[in-house]
Amino acid sequence: LHHPEADPDPPRTLIEESQNPAESMVDRPMVFFLNGRDKWRYTPAERLLYSYRVGDREWSPFLGSAVITLRDLRPGSHRLEVRTMDRNLNVDPEPGVFEFSVLVPWYQETRLVVISLMALVVVVFFAGLAFNRHRRLGRSYAEVERIVALRTRQLEQANEVLLHSQKMNALGTLAAGIAHDFNNILSIIKGSAQIIEAHPRDTDKVHTRVNRIKTVVDQGAAIVKTMLGFSRNSDHKAAPCQVEEIVAETVGLLGDRFTRGMDLKVEAEPGLPAVMGVKDHIQQMLLNLIFNAADAMDHRGEVVLRIGRMKKVPGRVVLPPAAAEEYVFLSVVDHGCGITPEILTRIFEPFFTTKALSSRRGTGLGLSMVYELAANLGFGLMVVSETGKGSTFTLILPAASGAQERVTGETTRGETSAPG
């Protein structure tokens, strides 16, 4: 029973978002709660009728239930429209609208599954590439390390051969000077023997000549011993060394006239500390520097060897020495032609020589060997040269830690200034 004249206004449709699901899975039914209100409350809310449709479907009949259940909805976004009618047949002209979504599980989404499988294939492919590359790189690194180790051993062996070759070349250079000393020794022995043979009954003359023969034989034995020690391969073990003793032995090896027209002068500060090094290597560096100085003066003039203390390393060194509280310097000074600034930067390069076009023809390995040996022993190296005035090559040797300085009865002189 209705009275249109008593209730001409249509009711309003209400769909509360908080009470209704905005999305759901495709296999699950969706339940929606509806609500409406008559303007003047002529029709109670529980007696209102509802009609709905999803999308463009047909409107459902008006039903008295405020709860609707939707099933078998396709995946995607949907639009639910609801109209409310009161008992006087007044229908809401503006339906209530509620939008919701129906979702598909990821394992049922064909495109997503295909994309996931493709992504998995790509990941596995690139992972395989990365693993294969890592394995190849590992093999390459192992091969490189093997080759480097092999080349290192070969280089060490070549250095040993080169070092020994340089020592033997130096011995060849020494031979000319030493031959003169041995000729003198043989002449004395021969002359003494002739005098003894001529005066066998003169006891004083025989005794004097025998003593002279013993003296020169000892001198010859000392020269031979020094040469054998120099030519023999060293065990390369560093030990405390006295630079003055090495210099004295080297000067004795060279003889009074190691080359005609050349004089060798030693200026040594007394009471110097010991240094850690290899005696044979220090002697070889010294010989190379002396021969280089003699060549610079065309084998005429004076080579000066200066030995002294050094507290602080100069700032213009070619090769810095190992850190130490005190140093001993060994300088070889010549008054030859000097070295031009253009050549000075290259003198320690292997096989670089300025004698290639001269009659002396050097190998270019002498100074390079000095540099290598100094670097291996932790020694410093300094060069000061002025064109037309000469050059000074200085070895800077760190004092041995804990080495006892030799105490002499001489009065200690002031500290010798650094060369150059």
Q: Could you characterize what this model shows?
A:
With 420 residues, this protein is of the alpha+beta class. Helix content is 39%, strand content 21%. It is built from 6 helices and 15 strands. The strands form 5 sheets. The chain has a 5-stranded mixed beta sheet with strand order 10-12-13-15-14. Strands 2-8-7-5 form a 4-stranded mixed beta sheet, with no helix packed on it. A hairpin with a 3-residue loop joins strand 14 and strand 15. Helix 1 runs antiparallel to helix 2 and helix 4 runs antiparallel to helix 6. The longest helix has 89 residues. The radius of gyration is 53 Å and the shape is rod-shaped. The C terminus is likely disordered.
